[in-house]
Amino acid sequence: MTVGKGKRSNAKRDFMQVARAVVEEAIGEHLDGTPLPPPPSGRRLAGAKGGKKGGAARAKVLTPAQRREIAVKAAQARWKTPKDD
Hints:
By secondary structure, the chain is mainly α. Helices cover 53% and strands 0% of the residues.
């Protein structure tokens, strides 16, 4: 049973290519001695960490009236019944 399609690395890589990549990652450089590129940082990780920070940052910028309006709209959407459509 397939639950869902996850993101997969390139399926055309064979076992030896994967093994080489694992070894290079473990030793921190390519097998020929050149350094690995730096890991992604900043904006590329925003999806992973940004959600935790984003709500609080947004709440600081909004006025109390704006926050209330957003909360009322969210509550109405949450408690909406199918016959209210």
